[in-house]
Amino acid sequence: MSESPVPVIDTPLEKKDFIRQIVRDDLAEGLHTAIRTRFPPEPNGYLHIGHAKSICLNFGIAREFSGVCNLRFDDTNPAKEDPEYVDAIRDDVRWLGFDWHELRHASDYFAAYYLAAEKLIRDGKAFVCDLTPEQVREYRGTLTTPGRESPWRNRSVEENLDLFRRMRAGEFPDGARTLRARIDMSSGNINMRDPALYRIKHVVHQNTGDAWCIYPMYDIAHALGDAIEGITHSLCTLEFEDHRPLYDWCVDNVDFMHHPELLKPLLAREFPLEADKPRQIEFSRLNINYTVMSKRKLTALVGEKLVDSWEDPRMPTLQGLRRRGYTPAAIRLFVDRVGISKQNSVIDFSMLEGSLRDDLDSAAARRMAVIDPLRLVLTNLDENHEESLQFANHPKDGSFGQRQVPFSRELWIEREDFAEVPPKGWKRLVPGGEVRLRGAGIARCDEVVKNEAGEIVELRGTLDPESRPGMAGANRKVKGTIHWVSARHAVEAEIRLYDRLFLVENPDDESEGKTYRDHLNPDSKRSVRGYVEPVAAQASPEQSFQFERLGYFVADRRDHHADAPVFNRSVTLRDAWAK
Ligand code: ATP
Ligand code: MG
After folding, report:
1. Class level of CATH domain 373-483
2. Is 53 touching ligand 1 by the criterion CB < 6 Å?
């Protein structure tokens, strides 16, 4: 996969959230000379809009405070990880407009983690435990009752070192033993009840191959990874709040800063030594209604073919949003609007759509397209009548320039802009009525042509010659204005009309035995054949337009070609879901 170029982003207004305030205070107190953050995805799926919040926060803070941000793949669970995800994640971060200082993997540090674990054993702070997973659960206790100490907790340092080395040498099968921290089985915080630090897993790792058959657990790997990289502020979501004591325990008890010998394996790899004492700060995760965001469910949607792929334009993945026509600026705007706090909430999907509308309103050129075509023949024009009308590409921004739009005797108009029996308040075309054709004059409908089945196949009408652009009657009042394309010049296009993937606000609701599969919107994808004006067909892939009166559309980044255009509807002009 080729990497997107990193666009330049305007300096944002100063943001005031509590995390940036902590960073500001820490700098003012001289606690750090430079800010270091990291974004630590697990490469077991594609990034979603929730991750964008974490990316914008971590990379944003680094940029705003002249610090750096690393991209670190948390690849400690080799069974579920895949290089396909690694490539997509790199691409997504750059597409969002950010670049990392260093690209690292937790697996880069396996040798240092191993030395750290041996140090904990030597210090009497870790032991090899032979309890089965079931027994571990049983010994752990509950929120209201303390746990019990493992019978293996008081093994000698020598025995622990010997067993740990034999775990590493591959002498024992998966799950036979674990290395556990020796902390406090009666702690009120269950995470502190002698948590596992290492487990045996005879699995080939995408980076380290078969070099290891023991892998560190998330808590120790994450804390030590932050310490090794000299991360100053380790920003994570609220569910890790209860893990913070363990995070600090790992950092403090390994203490790389006073034990640089543990980092020797990194010198061999020419990594700079920049260990520091990181501080974990939690913020609330992003939740959005009408979608699901757990990787497990997104993986299932793809696996069960309920969507076409990870980049299906209905998916909340960054690849999906991108293909749908979301711009990096719209996503950053959305994340800014959501803000950073410790308050859990569910954000309305329309806020995401609103951010896209607001970005594209100023960023997208206007074009005309007809997605449900009905022929209108202007009988008072010559068969060969053909002219070129000048249109502004943007109503509010002259820098978009002008374009020529061909006009002729036969036009495509939108079927829904004509009503044989108009409802009350109807402003568009009716038999015998008039409507303004955007930029081309006023047309009257004289005749409705139907087929044998009684379906309307064509309208025949006349163009008021006095109403042409620049003529005396051009500003004559008629109720409605509709868009059109010249039938002879228009290019046929596939138009993919997407809508929300789920019908209900909370697809995760599993009451009445339902699952998110039962809440899918059966009309979330429709494909129609329409017509676009000639310059629209010339769009480059991923170029966005407002198709006047219809919404914002993007030339599909995979399937669009000038001679066979494909457009995705990114968002309608108005919120059709508003209550
Ligand atoms: P999993 O479903 O595997 O637990 P995850 O969503 O936690 O996945 P990670 O790859 O571990 O995914 O996430 C990388 C980073 O993105 C973490 O720091 C995580 O806290 C953050 N993150 C994930 N989901 C959200 C979210 N919805 N809002 C804000 N940050 C998020
Ligand atoms: Mg996670």
Report:
1. mainly beta
2. yes
